[in-house]
Amino acid sequence: xxxxxxxxxxxxxxxxxxxxxxxxxxxxxxxxxxxxxxxxxxxxxxxxxxxxxxxxxxxxxxxxxxxxxxxxxxxxxxxxxxxxxxxxxxxxxxxxxxxxxxxxxxxxxxxxxxxxxxxxxxxxxxxxxxxxxxxxxxxxxxxxxxxxxxxxxxxxxxxxxxxxxxxxxxxxxxxxxxxxxxxxxxxxxxxxxxxxxxxxxxxxxxxxxxxxxxxxxxxxxxxxxxxxxxxxxxxxxxxxxxxxxxxxxxxxxxxxxxxxxxxxxxxxxxxxxxxxxxxxxxxxxxxxxxxxxxxxxxxxxxxxxxxxxxxxxxxxxxxxxxxxxxxxxxxxxxxxxxxxxxxxxxxxxxxxxxxxxxxxxxxxxxxxxxxxxxxxxxxxxxxxxxxxxxxxxxxxxxxxxxxxxxxxxxxxxxxxxxxxxxxxxxxxxxxxxxxxxxxxxxxxxxxxxxxxxxxxxxxxxxxxxxxxxxxxxxxxxxxxxxxxxxxxxxxxxxxxxxxxxxxxxxxxxxxxxxxxxxxxxxxxxxxxxx
Length: 530
Prior knowledge:
Blueprint: H1 6-10, E1 28-31, E2 37-40, E3 47-50, E4 56-59, H2 65-69, E5 76-79, E6 97-111, E7 118-121, E8 126-129, E9 136-137, E10 149-154, E11 157-162, E12 169-171, E13 174-176, E14 178-181, E15 186-189, E16 192-207, E17 211-212, E18 215-216, H3 220-233, E19 239-242, H4 249-258, E20 267-271, H5 277-285, H6 302-305, E21 310-314, H7 324-333, E22 335-336, E23 345-346, E24 350-355, H8 359-365, H9 370-376, E25 379-382, H10 393-403, H11 410-413, H12 416-424, H13 430-444, H14 479-501, H15 506-512, H16 517-526
Helix pairs in contact: 3-4, 7-9, 10-13
């Protein structure tokens, strides 16, 4: 299968790039079906253009981002949530979609080499870093990491998430990894100071339907995601699903497949986290008889089995570094060789991948290839956690009750007071944990008790999954003894929580809590968790 062209890539998303400064090269605009205005020139070198679907689009003909932006002049880059045609008229929403008012997010560079630059985003997160593909590319500041920080609009403010940058993101003198700040806040990224502000009021498309395949949700973020998945499914571009464990990333991948022209073809799942490096290569690309010890017959790999359909690479962040060039080669050439084979095999496959890791932080750390990230994240979907959509819990519970064969009214099985507690629960295991809770309710005939301290709302953090430690009980103890007592109780609750969130993967848990892996192992043994 020939690689997707730039116009095909563009067709999955809306995008509008404009600059206050003249471009170094004259541009023309080319309309694409249901998409937006795409800048292009006669230049032949590849470039990556940030798309309206929060992904990266490979452009074989466009000028580089630097040439488009003219970094020495103030500029505004707007990524639209609505679709445009070349004449500038909005197209009508898809029949199954509606529109919802939304406050855009604006970032202004107030100090640094690129002072005066402005970027405004009307949907999804705003990404800042030195690499191509960021919404605000701070390429003239050598202290900025390739994918430095992400900003996301929320009801309670603007969520700032550092992507494991080398030099950090600072609020005043405090280095922050994750924080919610109000509009008007100034942050420092490397040597560059930025201000986050409210942007213009815009309208964003959301699905009218409250389900997509096996997925259900009334939350606006979910319904907006449903609408975007339907659009992306119409093309063949690679998609990357990012979200915590248990959020339903595989169901979203299946929805992409089922709403695409490949729906009648195979849907092949590969869990990269469950295979050793040798087995990953064999599972992806297959092997010939005698390729290695134990290879007593020819084996068709997942790419070969998925020909004409979709391959879903789950936990792509676990892909061994030595295999990343091989996967990149398949994505670029649509050809590969089985292990031990001589002949190249050509395949026609759409690639959807998923991860609960921050691949941009992995890129910064040098453990994940930047070019592979670009290829996988042509369209990037951020799947919300269950705690971010508590209004969906009642409909999910009712769905799971019916699946489990429960016929009694939901109010009798889960009383309103219990439901209110469930909506405040932290749900570190997300929808998977909720399903287990419902199944236990049906099996035992009563609602199980939630773990103490986990019914409080708010963002996940050090204390979010911890107990309500009785501080008064240790106030009369000597400082060291009191501190050790409180720390012991905290660790006893915190460690199981991070293990559950990482599905028992100690390496993942150590990354999630920014702790040395060997130290985490020692703590787990201390508490008899390993």
